Each structure stands twice: as C-alpha cells, then as structure tokens.
C-alpha cells in the first residue's frame, strides 16, 4: 500500500468536489482535481463548502488543482484511480473517453470510476482502453456548486461495482480494486453511504426506469416533477416509458423488480424536483440523451422490442440537443435564405 | 339580397384583418371587427397594411370596430355571417363557442364560418347552437399583424365548405349560404384563391397530416422546420405520426391520398418556416393541442387504432400547455414546499 493513493478527479461539479473532499478527509488519498471552468478561483481561493456531512468549511483546496488532464500528467504523474463525474456526452465534440485519453494512455494500470448516469457508458472505455479496471458508481446526492460555493443538502449515497469487462483476465484484481476504493471512500462514522454493487448493470437499468421517463419528459416540457405530475403525465408518459424500459431490460437479461415502477412514479411526489436533464436544458448545456435514452433504445432495436414512447422521447431530445449545440456554436446553420423576416410574429396558419 | 351583407369578424390577427379588408374591398359586405387586444389603436388609427394582394394602404378602418362580442350586439344588430379566426382552444377559460355565444343566441339565423385549424371544431357549435349553418374555412396564408401593422406575404388561399350538420333540415339552404359567402369573399380578378370544399372533413384530415406532425414537434423542441429536419426528425418523428394520422383517418372513413405524406414531409424544405404552434409557444400563448392532436387521438381510441407517437405528442404538449397556462396565471401552483432553494443550479444526479 502506497503512503497515500493518488486520485485524479475529473469533473468538478458539486458531486466531484464532495467526492474529492471525502477522499482527502478520510486521509488515505491525495487528490488532483481537474477544474475546466472556474480554474482560477478554485486554484487560488479554493471552495467554500456548506455540507450536511462535513459542516461549514470557509475555504478548502484539494492537494492539487489543474486546468486540464494534460497538466495533470505533465510531469509523469501516476494515478491509482481516475474518478470522473463529467457529463457523459458521446455526441459532443469531446466525449468522456477522449477527455481521459491522455491520462489513461500514460497510466495503463489506473482504475477508472465512472460516476455518471446511463447505460453502456463503459463500452467506449473497454474498446479504447483494454486492460483498465472500470468501476461503476451510481450516486444519489442533492448538491450545488455555484462559482466554487458548494452546498450539499443530502448525504452522499453511492453504489460502486465492477463493470463486466472481457478485456481483463484477472477478475480478482478488479474486485480488489473495488474493495480498495470503497475502503478509501467510505467514512468511518457512517456519514456517507457507500455500498458495494454486485450487479452494476442491474442497478443502472433500475435507475433508468426513473431517468428515461422523468428526466426526459420534464426536460422536453420545462416542467419540474410535481408540475409534470399535475399535468397528468404519470399515466400517459412516465408509466408507458417505464414499461418499455422493463421490457428492454428483460430482453437484455435483467428482470426489474415489479414494485420499482410504482416507487419511481411516486419518488418525487410533492418535491417540485428539477431533474438533472431539465437543469441542463435551462442552462443550455448538452443533455445526456445518448446514455439515458439512445443506448437502451439501441438495445431495444437489436432485440426486437417495440418501444415507440422511448423512440419519440429520444428523437425529440435529439432535436433539443441540436438546438443546444447550435446555441453553443458546436453546430452552425445558415438560415440566411429564410422566407419570412419576422417568423416569431407570424400569424401562421400551417 | 340586402343592400350589404352584415359580417361580424371575431379574431383580429393578420388573417382576420385580411379577410375583413377583402370583404369590404369587394363591396358586398359591411364588416364589424371585434378587436380584443389593440382595440384603442385599431378603432382610432386603424390598420396599416402592406399586402401582396392589395398593395400598401396607409390607414384602413373596417366599417365598425368593437372591443368585444357583447358590444357588437348591444343595439340589437343582426349579422348574416359570423367569421371567426380566433385560436380554437377548448381547454382555455374562454373556448371559441363561449366567445360567440351572445351573438349566436341573438342571431339565430346567422351562418358561422370557422377559419381555424384542427378536427371536430364544429362539434361544440352543433351541440350548443343547433340550426345554425356552420362553414369550414381552411386557409393558407403567410401574414403578420404586429400592433395594427399588417404584412401579407402570400396570397390568401382558402377552401370553404359546409360542415356535416344533423341539426339542419334544409341542406340546400346551407349550400346557398356557402355559395353566397364565396361570392362575397372571392375577388374578381383572381387575386385571392377561394375554392368550394365539397368534403371539409377530408380537407381537415389532410391538413392534419402536416399539423399533427410538424407543428407539434417543432413546438416541443423550439426548432423551425428546416432545423428540425436537419436534426433527423423527418423519418423518426414526422413520418411515424403522419402514418398514424392516415390510419386514424381511415378508421374514420377517410382514405388520404398516398402521395400526401411525402409532399407534407417536403413542403417546408429549406424554408426555415416557423409553424403556428411554435410561434404560440415562443410568445407564451396557449397552443391548439386539443383540436390538432387531442381530437384525432380520441377518434383513435374510440376506433381502436394504435397511435403511440401521437399519444406521446399529445401528452407532452398538454404539459407545455400547463406551463403556458401557469405563466398566464390561468393555473396557480403552490410550490412553497419545494425542497431545494436553487433548483436551477443543482448538480442533480437523478
């Protein structure tokens, strides 16, 4: 065991900062945090944290803050763990595996922890970085990070497991890495919940029952969960999509618990909760449509499962993604040929 | 034949102003226009019109401008025709038939012209106002009305027919009214296109092929037609919805022409056209979801036609309608119990 494990943390949203703080607080890890936006403030003033788990911290800086992954390995640094909580956007100009490529090529023994939503998120890693252990981390936490001011409202609650990985011969080594990471992340006094996940794909299918129905429809309509329910979507949208997820999971070999559907339908009752995808839409950030909807839909198509509600959801969200990518100037459209000069005020009859 | 026909025009959008101008220009009608918003300007300064059909008109006032329907009949006025081009919103606090109720109760012989999108829009009129002839007017026109400045970019093009109406005994009388209205609306020199519609329900099913697929999906995603097509929705969204409309129309006894689907898919190619429903969403005005999607969907349910794409479209648009109605304070939601204070900045993981 090294004096301290070296962890590279990529994705400095609130969740990432809480994870970095937890790892250094426990004392077994030295964390380098990649901060792509807000680097200057994070590296000079550090973070102000108000946490249900740690109390109020006026100013905290991780062992090291770097502006990008390249800088994190500029001097041949070696990392035991690469923890990533960036949004998983395969359709963006810089998908997650591309961001991590330099460090994974340089650190062939590093274990990757993907703390992200969605299904089949490990697949690009298995392909591009064979031999790396890839861990699944499914998180439940309510927290915000606004300009280096972090608020954590609910305790950290994660399930961590080993992704199925045909590129690894030594399965026991993968299990050891899992146990090791859990041991350096879990707090002594039970202040965070860190569970070993023996079936990460099942866990991810279960979380998709919520995400594929509720994140998506609230993002498409700009309504929080409670307003969406008031507008009648539980029976007309959420339940039909959830049932399609059940059927697709089944075709993939995973039987989801029957009571999960009802629980997920009720979990946000009265909370006026804003799912992450709706937050992204409101902030004009790309949405995780491919890993939350696209990947399960492709499994449905492969396995011949009829999923028209999920298909509509996917393709409407791809249109929203197009709109966001144009606003972010990732896509450029020449509309100089448009017919009418003032289309927004048109009394159109079509 | 009276010296001049008396027409009450309700709905003073660009289309309504063009219709009123046309009727008075032709010289056979005296038009009273109900102007609910912008009454003061319309009744004093009148309209400035720039029209492909009539040229530039500095200032034009209809024979009479009134602020509401009640005022239009305050002195026992009798109207031969009630032409309405207000949005058809059965789910609003003041649906169309309620707006027209005073004048129709007072004018039991008046013929109603519904110049509006959607299917089954005549049904509330048949029920509430039996004995009135109800005409269908399906319009194609590109025009705007911004604060009494009217621009007409494409020629007026309407199809007018008689709605099937079991409350009327004298079918020939209805046909006479249709011919009469066409004769006072049609311009001599062919400057407007006014066609007699022998099968208005078929015409409306045909227009729905466009409206139910294209207005809806562009409204849900805030993308004009060309951007929507670039985002891939022609095959994934528009065609599946169009095929469901074909199937529902068939179950209703109407066989739509096979080439219509392809024509409607291509009709807006390259135009960056903003369909009326997207215009409404952008301006936070209620959308015509019930007459464009709800009514055909109810026929599908009644006739046992599977229409999951149309169903998703309908229920997502009902959520958008909820959002718009809350913004317009038609609906009030008490969200004081919301869990997090700053939901828009949350790094939510659900």
TrEMBL record, chains A, B:
Gene Ontology cellular-component terms listed: cytoplasm
Ketopantoate reductase N-terminal domain sequence ranges: 7-164
Annotated organism of origin: Ogataea philodendri
Classification via Pfam families: ApbA, ApbA_C
Domain Ketopantoate reductase C-terminal span(s) in chain numbering: 201-321
Highest classification ranks of the organism: Eukaryota, Fungi, Dikarya, Ascomycota, Saccharomycotina
Signal peptide limits: none
Gene3D superfamilies: N-(1-d-carboxylethyl)-l-norvaline Dehydrogenase, domain 2, NAD(P)-binding Rossmann-like Domain
Protein's recorded name: 2-dehydropantoate 2-reductase
Domain of life from the UniProt record: Eukaryota
